[in-house]
Amino acid sequence: MKGQGKKITIVVFILLGIAASIGFYLYNKGPVNIKNANAIKINANELYNDFITDSASAQKKYTGKVLSVNAKVSSSTVNQNGEQLILLNTALQSAFINCTFEEKDVKIIAGEQVTIKGLCSGIGQGDIDLGIAGDVYLSRCYLLKNTP
Questions:
Q1: pLDDT attached to residue 22
Q2: Cβ distance 69 to 87 under 8 Å?
Q3: What spatial distance separates the first Cα and last Cα of the chain, rounded to whole Å?
Q4: C-alpha span between 134 and 102 (Å, rounded)
Q5: How far is residue 86 CA from its own chain's centroid?
Q6: d(CA 136, CA 87)
């Protein structure tokens, strides 16, 4: 009995050591490198449609994932934090893919066809009473391709 109890104690300590090592690694891993990460390729219409037809499924499929979104630019502005903000058109006239850039001074103008890579954080709340649709948000974005 004494030998078996000793073996169990050793196994428990080994498992605790493995769990602590994994926890330490995950804690210190840092944020995803968006620029070099593999991305789910999708166009803006399809992405937005997925969120409005089955929000729960789209949240599981896209939220927290790196996406590469292709669409035509609706507008390009700078937000209050000095970050470049690009709105990509969707099939719904008042709904956009809202892209906040990590880089400064990205040269994008309205009407261009672009491919933007960013981290999806889901769909925002619109206001049905006012006829305002929620936008799908991408953060830490990078421009992959633009064509006039």
A1: 86
A2: no
A3: 78
A4: 22
A5: 15
A6: 10
Long-range pairs, 123-131, Cβ under 8 A, ≥24: 123/51, 123/52, 123/55, 123/58, 123/59, 124/98, 126/95, 131/94
CA distances to 11, 23, 25 from 138, in Å = 45, 28, 27
pLDDT digits (tens, 9 = 90+) for 68-105: 999 999 998 888 888 889 999 998 888 899 999 987 77
**Which pLDDT tens digit goes with each residue over 110-148?**
889 999 999 999 988 876 666 667 889 999 999 887 665
> Are 67 and 117 in contact, with CB atoms under 8 Å apart?
yes
Taking CA atoms, 142 is separated from 23, 30, 59, 107, in Å, by 30, 19, 22, 11
Tokens of 133: 């649709």
- Strand, coil or helix: 11: helix
- What pLDDT score does 146 carry? 67
DSSP 59-91: HHHHTTSEEEEEEEEEEEEE-TTS-EEEEEE-S
